[in-house]
Amino acid sequence: MKILDELKPEDSELRSLALIRLGVVERHAGQISDSLTRFSQAYPHVQEGGPLVTGRYYHELATTLQEIALAENRPDFLETSTHHFQRASYEFIAIGHHRYTAVLENNHGFLLLKLGRFKEAEIHLIRARKLFKEFNDAVRKSQVDDTLARLYIATHQFELSDLASRRAVSCLEVYDEDALLAEALTTRGLLFCKLNRFTEARLSLEGAWRIAERCGDPEGAGRALLVLFEEMYDQLKPFERYDVVVRLRGLLGHTQTTSTRSRLEKCLVLISKEAL
Q: How many domains does the chain have?
């Protein structure tokens, strides 16, 4: 915010980029409404920028709208998100920015995964992975592997999920990408739960929680603990369940993500019933 205050009126492109990045930060922090506000503030300045700025704007706005659509069951936002992804793709292709095109392919594939359109999702994700491999972008490629692992969990292709998940975790452990590693460990923990490998699942999920909390990502830490509570409820002792819920309340008490808040409330209800 301090940087925005210091910008001159003629610094329209810098202002738009700063607001877009603020919107991304707010989204990652689970502050979805605040994220939308930043994109609304950026819109007038984006119109004065080139296709790179416009593409970034529509891509990040589409990603935020996608999260709202999936979290709050808003089909109107979903349609708008799809339109913005297409607009961003047009801008990136027009200037030959294939790296951003690959990022968009990954995000679009993630959206299709959440919609249950698995075959379409896999096509977009494999395309994204191929592009990142050509760019020697190991971190982004690992993000796609993590998304593919989630897709294969959803379609009960656990061997493929294990391969993709292992690739993602192994790569991200090498690089200084703690937030992404926490996500990949959460996916791997979920996979272990589906395979009834609960000892490994707990190690993975608690590792994800510690890493995410250490790097200042309460939403990521909370997601790991939600999986731990939901998937391993019968494996936890009563005092362990209570401890997890206390941590969840501290991490996710102020989340603006409806689906996350709903999952947290279900956990609280279960613990309340145990106390009766």
A: 1
Could you read off the pLDDT of 18-31 as tens digits, one per residue?
A: 888 888 888 878 78
- In the numeric block, the tokens 């492109």 are attached to 13
6, part of any domain: yes
Phi, psi of 253 (to 5 degrees): -60, -25
* 78 within some domain: yes
DSSP secondary structure string for all residues of 205-233: HHHHHHHHHHTT-HHHHHHHHHHHHHHSG
* Residue whose C-alpha is closest to residue 71's, from 232, 263, 209, 246: 263
- Is 10 a residue whose pLDDT tops 60? no
User: Is 32 among the domain residues?
Assistant: yes
Write the pLDDT tens digit of every residue in 77-89.
877 888 898 888 8
In a domain, 11, yes or no: yes
**What 8-state DSSP symbol labels residue 29?**
T
